[in-house]
Batch of 2 targets.
Target 1
Amino acid sequence: MQGKVRLHVDPSKCQGHSRCKSLAPELFDLDEYGNAREAGDGTVPDDLVDKAYLAKSNCPELAIDITED
Amino acid sequence: MSHNPPVTDWVNDFDHTDQQWTDNPFPIWDELRTTCPVVHTDRFLGVYLPTTYEAVKQIAYDTEHFSSRRVVVRNARPEITMPSPPITSDPPHHKPAKQLLLPPFTPDAMKKLEPRVREICNELIDDFIADGACDAAAQYSKHIPVRAIAHMLGIPEADGHLFVRWIHEILELGVHDDAILMKAAHEMNDYFSAHIAERRSHPREDLIMDLIRAKGPDGQPLSDMHVLGSLRLLLIAGIDTTWSGIGSSIWHLAKTPADRKRLVAEPELMPFAIEEFLRAYSPVTMAREVMKETVISGCPVKPGNMVLLSFPAANRDPTMFSDADKVIIDRKENRHAAFGLGIHRCVGSNLARMEMTVALEEWLKRIPEFSLDPAGEVTWSEGTVRGPRQLPLRLG
Ligand code: SF4
């Protein structure tokens, strides 16, 4: 049983590569410039945890953080 | 085609326009990477070449010591008279110039363009599929970005041959001959000036019109210089880069039947395959100018020199990517830097990805079986952008 998983995009690092959005569309929102934010409050539903890690490991700017508690 | 003497010592005297590099640069980068993270040549008035991911990343993020005012390594460094914002802009000018161009290139905007790109691909395939053979570079991959960007800018797709010639003159011949470069740049300016004037009298909806209407950070319309510079950038940056990306992908599939069959059988792998082709065959090497002395990965770099920011070499660094020299079409972790890192991330990356995806999907739907034509010869572009320029295939 895992704890609550949250993800966060660091807006100062994100350069809008959109890798996260294409790999895990449910978990990210893009602004009008194509820069990403976590969708909602960043809570990752259990069934999307793998996708969250996939997005993180494909962000060229290391802008995505995932915490588990 | 290089006009320079052939290279005999890659570590101390490299040349990115040497025929050996053009034909097959990968072993050269591997050799350099194991020797020194940042090598230097006296050619082109002094150039550094980082080949590790770490060194490339450090330079890409360092806008204090490295300027983007020159982004192509050439034999000469004349006064800068025609900037192409935002690619040639440094902070603080970079961000406002880039923000003007980002909205038309978001993933959502690309979805709207996608149907036209699918049509373009099929029109091109119609022209050669019955022949059982084609040059996939000259007859297919080259035309897709030309027509797509023309469609976005609202200029005739039929003018594509002009764009292709200008780009060849600017990015290949112009490296060695400034007169050719300037002539092409002036022709482009005249071409776009006419389009701008035409829209001022007869407004319509396209990307040129958006730029004419756009306001700079001071609330004033952009100067004609700025609009022309950005249009030159979109045309130059948008065409042979993606043409090369599509061409290299088709080249890979033509010589690797296992990957070709797998991609036909498992189309859901396409997004991963595209990223892997981008990593393994990254088309674009940008440049920076050293403005202040600094140290990169232990190597001192000095002003007065350029840096070839080799994203392609970084993407083959085995300390960053496992099996970096292998093409693994379902590679799951792929933090490649094909579109750059940091503030200069390619504005057109979403467009390029969409074009590559559509180009391969439409091709594989209609031409699932193809191979290199043993009687033909594959040739590669020289210098800044790497991709096949002649790619003879047998279809079926
Ligand atoms: S992949 Fe990274 S840089 Fe790209 S949009 Fe997502 S968070 Fe931003």
Note: Chain B touches chain A through 23 residues (CB under 8 Å).
Target 2
Amino acid sequence: MGEITMAQALNRAIDEAMAEDSGVFCLGEDVGAKQGGGVFKVTAGLTEKYGEHRIRATPISETAIVGAAVGAALAGQRPIAEIMLMNFVGVCMDQIVNHAAKLRFMSGGQTNVPLVIRTTTGVGVGFGGQHSDMLEAWFAHVAGLHVVTPSNAADAQGLMRASIDCNDPVIFIENILCYGLKSQDPGPGYRVPLGKAAVAREGSDISVITYGRTVLDALAVASELANEGISVEVIDLRSIAPYDEETVLASVRKTGRALTLHEAVRPFGTGAEIAANIQEKCWDSLKGPVRRIGGTFSPVPFASVLEQAWIPNKQQIVDQIKASMGRG
Amino acid sequence: MADIDRDTLLDIYTRTMKVNRTDEKFRSLLMQGKVAVMYYCVRGQELVSAAAMTALRDEDYVVCTYRGQGEQTAKGIPAEKWWAECLGKVTGTCKGKGGTMHITHPEKGIMVTTGVVGSGLPIANGLAMASQNTGDGKVTMVSFGDGAANIGAFHEALNMAQLYKLPVVFLCQNNRYGEHTAFADHTQSESIYGRAAGYGMKGVRVDGNDVFAMYHAAKDAVDRARAGEGPTLIEAMCYRMMGHFFGADFSYMPKEHLAEMQREDPLPKLRAVMLEHQFTEVELDAIVAGIDAEIDEAVAKALAADPPGPEELQIDVFEKVPA
């Protein structure tokens, strides 16, 4: 089998799910054929196959989009709602936090909300402050939501299928800079279970716990440092919430050192939660404090030079790893 | 206004009195200090809910608000389960995890009761979208107050519903107050129903204290929705005869207006209609007595029932319960 891009992988996962289950449908701004199949072409070609009732191009109404997805999910369908850019989730937080996340609990399990909210974001494309934030910590903080983000095309396909299968709401974050990434084609029907991390590279000196686009940086740094005799283990969480605590803790117990890494701003980020958990549960194995890398605590800037300064870079990762090893 | 057949009239009367007696009982328990929970009184709005629910079929969907006792009771949630939920008991519809503001009972189509003003409208669209997608023939009705007409979700939902011609009915119960703010102090347009025109939607205003007007408005809207003719916005004019929630100060409601609205009380009006239709005092009183007995039994059982156990904190968060 050949290679597949992340955008193609997502399209295939949705296509397969729609073919197998007539309850699966998509809704969102510009997702239809008339609009070109989505800004990033993830739903391209699907209207032609499944019709306008199953690929519903919506008005610019984020609350109505997610609300409709919640309602349809309550009625037993499996909607895939697209919020074009992650910052716009602010417009529909009531539907996500007060309704999607809580209806199973508040109904005592009588109803559930099997919906996927696809959204896209990412630093490095010059979109500036209102189109670039990674807001996964907002959702990870709400009981009842799964938060998922792939770092490669094969995982994107597998995680999307698993998200559509899931009987709970899933926030599915796609990094714009990853759409063009190619993976070995995993073939049809491929699934990656939610809540299961991948050991993206094995190592013995330090565990770097990360997800999304920064996995690529971590892997690049791990290759570089191998030449200097430092063995870095890279954990790709894939599911940010609930996350695979078992794999993370096992890795840290093995290496004795940990670094959390994400594109979102550092304060109150998911890295802080993971770091705190590691320190509580692996204290006896740790050779030093758990370190954290995240974006600068400011809005994402526009000017390219500022944007590049904002985002965690490979040098920071190298420096933190070396400091952790006492080789700074 | 066209008449209503005797069976339907009796159905509406029975549902109206269920709503009213439930409301009276709740306030009585609260006043006696026998229970201490949030309760949003529906006195004055009983007929709107009862007539609207009568226009629906059992399997149709309803989305309502924290002031949803009327829809919930009139749509047919069993009294025992309803009371147990309101008192936070494990025997309640939601195992005591929803409470008065979050009652769900899919068996009778009560899919969501939301505590967030206006948030039910987009969800109702989704339920209706599912019916449109699957062709199951169900209609969704969403009830909300006049205050809800001013949140963004109202406008987004109306536009989307009309765009897709969804089988949904938007039922605005204009009880003249959004929390503690009078209609004229929160809305400059003279009506809510008039806003439907802005979305190309059919809008109607009815006297929610008139059983004929209210039932026919609801029935027409439900029939249109079921026939694939799209949504309707109904503005049912009624009056919230008490404060925002039980125990809340309502001195801001002018006494003269309250007195005027009490003369419009839907209950004596409905009773008069029933008598005009040859139902007897004895028959009508017997219906109320039967309802009271059912409620008393339900309350006694609810008071005696167990609260949910602490293990419930981990259950229903996700489908999978953590090991």
Note: Chain B has a mean pLDDT of 96.
